[in-house]
## 1
Amino acid sequence: MIAFLIVNQVLMKISDSKEVQDKYKEWIEKSNVVQKFGRNQYTFQGGGKLTKQMIEYLDKLPENGRGNRLDFLQKYGVITTTKDGNFNKAGERISLQGYLASWFSALNKAGIISSTQGKKGFTKGENFEKFKEKILTKK
């Protein structure tokens, strides 16, 4: 127990060190790695298939229309819904609340979608048009 406390104190001192933090930041910048803890790992740089489908989905929404997670995921075949629940492509039962939650959150943070606290669904975000142009013109 005492050894654990000593090691823990030493590790805390090292991690608080400005030199260690500077080296860490330098390594992150050089390796172009995105932290997987504390920050989502989605950058939307590549405009993957699901992201392009979201652009299409949002584009088809009526003026001031609201989309929702279930409708989007069902429409593009990401999940299927039966009387027994929601299932992914592998046939595994999923919880809709947590399924792709970090991806939807990242879309929201990037301004591609906008979800208002207390309201169901989402709308086009403030950066939707810029993002759409960027992705659709990318080869």
## 2
Amino acid sequence: MIVLEMRPMPAPRPRVTKFGTYNDPRYTAYKQAVALQCRRYFKEPISGAVKMELVFQFKTPKSWSKKRQAEAIRRGYHTQKPDGDNLEKGIKDALNGIAYIDDAQVAEVNKVKVWGDRDMILIDISSLEKQKEGGDEE
């Protein structure tokens, strides 16, 4: 399990101009930070099908009352923007070439967005081939 102490950031739409296509520099910095922190967990990229489990935790806004913050954390699920698909895309893009050769290998994804007392991203990546092989041995 990889724990990243940072605010989850969704993948924005690239900006297209007559001079080319550009990503927001903040998004590029976010992907680089995720990649840098995750690099130490992988000696080499996984080949074959990959399973990814993601938890995106968002800190409750300071502008909310203590009661509202506690209620949001108790309820758990974060049902506001950004949407989970764009958050997932940011992580998948950042881990290309680090956790797996290409994000097209990600065959199974479980993700959840929750409220918490701090911003955090939890990532668990495993090979589906190893799980399948392990299941056959029983």
## 3
Amino acid sequence: MNTDTTKGQWNEIKGKLKEKWGKLTDDDITQAEGNWDQLRGKLTQAYGYGKDSVEQEIHGFKNYMSEKFNQSSTRLKDGAEEVRQDAKKISDSSH
């Protein structure tokens, strides 16, 4: 992952890793935590992927997770904006 990945994000990523690659054990995922190179090795061992295949798999997974986090971030921002607007309406109506 990277230094910006929060613990909560890592927990979600672990769940999605297990969904996508069920042959990976919890130990495999824990050992690979924070290190895509180790994950590549675990996937190669578990699934017999070649170099190009494992790169495509990892790339696709990273894109998928990035999109999920971007969508979540957008929903949070939208929700915060709604709360701000509601608070402003309440404040304005009390004057």
## 4
Amino acid sequence: MAVGLLLAGCGGSSDAPVTATSHSPTGSASPTAQVLELGKSELTLDAGAVRSPDGFAPALELEVPAGWTSTHRYADAFDVGQADPKADAPLVVVAVTTAPEPDADAALMAVADRQRGADLTRESGDLLGSPAHTLEVVGGDGPAYSSRDGSIALDAVPGYRLRLLATDVAGTALVVAVLVVDDGRIDDLLSQAEALVGSLHATET
């Protein structure tokens, strides 16, 4: 069942791409990490280590700050975000997904092909200790990206911004999407998203 995540507007400006800091490819899992339960519901997360749902490969762990939740948790994609207390919408979402395309380059190329009329910016970065590429979509419209099984789907909206970071891990294209809703706090929310993406690391199973 596809879950549509509407891209929220990002006003202001930020030239820094959403990139991850370097980590060893595989690390030990935290014994106190909260394992995300499969399903769709608003799940409150404790501050600290959070582990990807059962069946998600590669097995991942990341650090979330206080006040974050998870809504979608499947074998091909999961998300963490900060809810808007004034509306039924998030302030910021980080979606961690596996792509249907054979590799990371193909995954980002497919997004670019769907959004030919958008303002597209490509950069390089780092994810899970490996080289990665970023794609930012501004001013797009309609379907942009869907995870491998369609559990999380991302639509571009005119004037809105989507940032994708992609790398290949053990034959799987891993795509991390960052969405920022509150344009009045873009620098703060992007900073939080960058720290969270930078904390991502694969764990031994």
